[in-house]
Amino acid sequence: xxxxxxxxxxxxxxxxxxxxxxxxxxxxxxxxxxxxxxxxxxxxxxxxxxxxxxxxxxxxxxxxxxxxxxxxxxxxxxxxxxxxxxxxxxxxxxxxxxxxxxxxxxxxxxxxxxxxxxxxxxxxxxxxxxxxxxxxxxxxxxxxxxxxxxxxxxxxxxxxxxxxxxxxxxxxxxxxxxxxxxxxxxxxxxxxxxxxxxxxxxxxxxxxxxxxxxxxxxxxxxxxxxxxxxxxxxxxxxxxxxxxxxxxxxxxxxxxxxxxxxxxxxxxxxxxxxxxxxxxxxxxxxxxxxxxxxxxxxxxxxxxxxxxxxxxxxxxxxxxxxxxxxxxxxxxxxxxxxxxxxxxxxxxxxxxxxxxxxxxxxxxxxxxxxxxxxxxxxxxx
Length: 381
Fold this sequence. Notes:
The chain has 381 residues and is mostly helical. The protein contains 13 helices and no strands.
């Protein structure tokens, strides 16, 4: 019996070794096939991720319907909860666009209108600076810009003729329509997932019961529940932290009498959903907006945002997001740096909940090992 068991293990490891060797030899074709398969399932994966995010809102809405004592509510709570969740998300996106886009266009118009004055003021400032250097001063005085011709040449360059403009317009329209069609497909698939999500849970339970032992099934359920709780808490904490930062930014700008306070605060808060660096991106856009009104005041905004961002990164973010996922602040910052280097912005966003899951599972594993060791020690005594 032992000989047969040894032969079986030898065959098993030979097959595994052969598969590893084949995988190394044909690594590039295998990666190509994997990339093709991943591309085919990209929309399904995105739909599942979208359904997961919508489900966080939908579950809270359904809990509100569960408090109603009417039996007929149970029959309609799922579609009504889903519809209300989609409306909430749509309204939030619409409010964001309504607050941000008009101000951006207004600032661009202000910038283009003020460019000649800014150039003249800058030229005059440089002439005063180099007053004692006649050569440089004369060179600066000789600088003249025909803004009308510059604008016409720019439009001509960008247009490149009617035919080129038509080609560019067709390309842009095709890309927009293609993206819109893909988004609708993803949204429809996400809606189907949410309307019948219990079917997927039952399928997992049936397959798990058939092919996994009861002990391993219970452990797997605990791991999946931990992952779900961590990721959902992270999304909620990230949104809360974005609201806090956006409110502080807008409030400070109002106190300092800076323009576009509500718009910049909204923009900084929303973009801050990308951990740590999001506020800097939003701040750069906000600085540009303030610059179109008052270049000197934009420097004050930059100083204020740097101070606010340091306070947010080192105090608010680790506490709010770290506490929501049960991860110490030092691990939050470390995960952002490590996963950001490995995978960019997606790594920054997903690295924190992934690290929190590993951290919690590691604690559970260590506690179980300590308990087993303590039991063995007691038995030996």
